[in-house]
Design a protein that fits this description.
about 190 residues; mainly alpha; 6 strands; 6 helices; about 45% helix
Protein backbone atom coordinates (compact mmCIF):
# COMPACT_ATOMS: atom_id res chain seq x y z
CA UNK A 1 0.00 0.00 0.00
CA UNK A 2 1.35 3.43 -1.00
CA UNK A 3 1.17 6.09 1.71
CA UNK A 4 0.03 9.53 0.50
CA UNK A 5 1.62 12.52 2.19
CA UNK A 6 0.33 16.11 2.15
CA UNK A 7 1.73 18.23 -0.68
CA UNK A 8 4.46 20.71 0.09
CA UNK A 9 3.65 24.39 0.22
CA UNK A 10 6.40 25.86 -1.88
CA UNK A 11 7.20 29.52 -2.06
CA UNK A 12 9.93 31.77 -3.33
CA UNK A 13 11.65 32.12 0.06
CA UNK A 14 13.52 29.05 1.26
CA UNK A 15 13.27 29.71 5.01
CA UNK A 16 9.53 30.37 5.04
CA UNK A 17 8.89 27.45 2.69
CA UNK A 18 10.75 25.31 5.20
CA UNK A 19 8.62 26.51 8.11
CA UNK A 20 5.58 25.68 5.94
CA UNK A 21 6.45 22.00 6.28
CA UNK A 22 4.24 22.26 9.38
CA UNK A 23 1.03 24.11 8.64
CA UNK A 24 -2.15 24.99 10.50
CA UNK A 25 -0.09 25.37 13.68
CA UNK A 26 -3.08 26.78 15.60
CA UNK A 27 -5.62 24.36 14.21
CA UNK A 28 -5.31 20.75 13.18
CA UNK A 29 -1.57 20.80 12.47
CA UNK A 30 -0.44 19.22 9.20
CA UNK A 31 3.07 17.73 9.26
CA UNK A 32 4.42 17.70 5.72
CA UNK A 33 7.73 15.98 6.57
CA UNK A 34 6.49 13.11 8.77
CA UNK A 35 9.24 10.69 7.75
CA UNK A 36 12.92 11.11 6.82
CA UNK A 37 12.31 10.46 3.11
CA UNK A 38 9.89 13.40 2.91
CA UNK A 39 12.66 15.70 4.15
CA UNK A 40 14.91 14.33 1.39
CA UNK A 41 12.06 15.04 -1.07
CA UNK A 42 11.54 18.60 0.22
CA UNK A 43 15.26 19.36 0.04
CA UNK A 44 15.45 18.02 -3.54
CA UNK A 45 12.49 20.14 -4.64
CA UNK A 46 14.38 23.14 -3.29
CA UNK A 47 17.64 22.34 -5.05
CA UNK A 48 19.38 20.87 -1.99
CA UNK A 49 19.71 17.25 -2.98
CA UNK A 50 20.99 14.75 -0.42
CA UNK A 51 21.04 10.97 -0.70
CA UNK A 52 19.39 10.01 2.57
CA UNK A 53 18.11 11.15 5.93
CA UNK A 54 18.06 9.46 9.32
CA UNK A 55 15.47 9.89 12.03
CA UNK A 56 18.02 11.90 14.04
CA UNK A 57 18.60 14.23 11.07
CA UNK A 58 14.85 14.67 10.66
CA UNK A 59 14.68 15.72 14.32
CA UNK A 60 17.50 18.24 13.70
CA UNK A 61 15.51 19.60 10.77
CA UNK A 62 12.34 19.92 12.82
CA UNK A 63 14.25 21.65 15.61
CA UNK A 64 15.63 24.11 13.05
CA UNK A 65 12.18 24.58 11.49
CA UNK A 66 10.62 25.45 14.84
CA UNK A 67 13.52 27.75 15.74
CA UNK A 68 13.19 29.59 12.43
CA UNK A 69 9.44 29.85 12.93
CA UNK A 70 9.92 31.30 16.43
CA UNK A 71 12.56 33.78 15.23
CA UNK A 72 10.55 34.87 12.17
CA UNK A 73 7.40 35.27 14.25
CA UNK A 74 9.26 37.42 16.78
CA UNK A 75 10.81 39.53 14.02
CA UNK A 76 7.40 39.98 12.35
CA UNK A 77 5.99 41.52 15.55
CA UNK A 78 9.19 43.53 16.07
CA UNK A 79 10.41 41.55 19.07
CA UNK A 80 13.80 39.98 19.65
CA UNK A 81 13.97 36.33 18.66
CA UNK A 82 14.21 33.81 21.51
CA UNK A 83 17.83 33.13 22.47
CA UNK A 84 17.36 29.37 22.09
CA UNK A 85 16.03 29.83 18.55
CA UNK A 86 19.00 32.04 17.65
CA UNK A 87 21.39 29.43 19.02
CA UNK A 88 19.84 26.60 16.98
CA UNK A 89 19.81 28.70 13.79
CA UNK A 90 23.44 29.72 14.30
CA UNK A 91 24.52 26.17 15.10
CA UNK A 92 22.83 24.76 11.98
CA UNK A 93 24.24 27.57 9.83
CA UNK A 94 27.84 26.99 10.90
CA UNK A 95 27.77 23.19 10.91
CA UNK A 96 27.15 22.69 7.22
CA UNK A 97 29.27 22.58 4.09
CA UNK A 98 27.65 24.46 1.24
CA UNK A 99 29.00 26.97 -1.22
CA UNK A 100 27.35 30.00 -2.71
CA UNK A 101 27.90 30.17 -6.47
CA UNK A 102 26.97 32.82 -9.02
CA UNK A 103 24.64 31.75 -11.84
CA UNK A 104 24.94 33.09 -15.40
CA UNK A 105 21.88 35.26 -14.57
CA UNK A 106 23.82 36.88 -11.70
CA UNK A 107 21.85 35.13 -8.95
CA UNK A 108 23.28 33.45 -5.89
CA UNK A 109 22.64 29.72 -5.82
CA UNK A 110 23.70 27.27 -3.14
CA UNK A 111 25.65 24.23 -4.19
CA UNK A 112 26.10 21.07 -2.21
CA UNK A 113 28.74 18.49 -3.01
CA UNK A 114 27.68 15.03 -4.23
CA UNK A 115 28.41 13.58 -0.78
CA UNK A 116 26.45 16.25 1.13
CA UNK A 117 24.46 15.37 4.20
CA UNK A 118 21.19 16.74 5.57
CA UNK A 119 23.20 19.00 7.89
CA UNK A 120 24.79 20.67 4.86
CA UNK A 121 21.38 21.40 3.36
CA UNK A 122 20.05 22.66 6.69
CA UNK A 123 22.93 25.13 6.87
CA UNK A 124 21.61 26.75 3.69
CA UNK A 125 18.09 27.01 5.15
CA UNK A 126 19.51 28.51 8.36
CA UNK A 127 21.59 31.02 6.38
CA UNK A 128 18.50 32.03 4.42
CA UNK A 129 16.58 32.68 7.62
CA UNK A 130 19.46 34.76 8.96
CA UNK A 131 19.42 37.00 5.88
CA UNK A 132 15.69 37.61 6.32
CA UNK A 133 15.75 38.23 10.07
CA UNK A 134 18.81 40.49 9.74
CA UNK A 135 16.91 42.65 7.24
CA UNK A 136 19.31 42.01 4.37
CA UNK A 137 16.55 41.36 1.85
CA UNK A 138 13.96 43.63 0.34
CA UNK A 139 10.62 42.70 1.83
CA UNK A 140 8.65 42.61 5.06
CA UNK A 141 8.04 39.82 7.53
CA UNK A 142 4.37 39.32 8.35
CA UNK A 143 2.10 36.77 9.97
CA UNK A 144 -0.72 35.04 8.12
CA UNK A 145 -4.12 36.51 8.95
CA UNK A 146 -5.68 33.04 9.15
CA UNK A 147 -6.39 32.33 12.83
CA UNK A 148 -5.53 28.64 12.40
CA UNK A 149 -2.31 29.27 10.49
CA UNK A 150 -0.42 32.37 11.69
CA UNK A 151 2.61 31.33 9.64
CA UNK A 152 5.41 33.84 9.22
CA UNK A 153 5.92 34.81 5.59
CA UNK A 154 8.13 37.21 3.70
CA UNK A 155 6.06 39.76 1.81
CA UNK A 156 7.80 41.04 -1.32
CA UNK A 157 4.66 42.51 -2.90
CA UNK A 158 4.97 46.10 -4.04
CA UNK A 159 2.65 47.43 -1.32
CA UNK A 160 3.93 45.05 1.42
CA UNK A 161 0.30 44.52 2.54
CA UNK A 162 -0.22 40.80 1.93
CA UNK A 163 -2.49 39.22 4.53
CA UNK A 164 -2.01 35.50 3.95
CA UNK A 165 0.98 33.23 3.73
CA UNK A 166 -0.52 31.69 0.60
CA UNK A 167 -3.47 33.06 -1.34
CA UNK A 168 -4.30 29.62 -2.75
CA UNK A 169 -4.75 28.07 0.70
CA UNK A 170 -5.25 30.41 3.64
CA UNK A 171 -6.43 33.38 1.59
CA UNK A 172 -8.89 31.31 -0.41
CA UNK A 173 -10.20 29.61 2.74
CA UNK A 174 -10.80 32.97 4.46
CA UNK A 175 -12.49 34.51 1.43
CA UNK A 176 -14.71 31.44 1.06
CA UNK A 177 -15.69 31.60 4.75
CA UNK A 178 -16.52 35.32 4.43
CA UNK A 179 -18.57 34.65 1.28
CA UNK A 180 -20.51 31.84 2.99
CA UNK A 181 -21.12 33.97 6.09
CA UNK A 182 -22.46 36.81 3.95
CA UNK A 183 -24.63 34.39 1.94
CA UNK A 184 -26.27 33.11 5.15
CA UNK A 185 -26.93 36.67 6.36
CA UNK A 186 -28.70 37.60 3.14
CA UNK A 187 -30.35 34.46 1.73
CA UNK A 188 -32.11 36.43 -1.04
Amino acid sequence: MHVRFPDFRLGKVLATSFTATLTERRGDAVERIPVPQRLVDWLAVNGLTVESCTTAQLELARELRESIHAALTAAAILESPPATAVQVINDRSTQGRAAAVLTPESHRQWRLSPDSRVEDALSVVAADSISIIAGERDGKLALCASPTCRAAFFDTSQSRTRKWCDMNTCGNRQKKARFNANKHKDPG
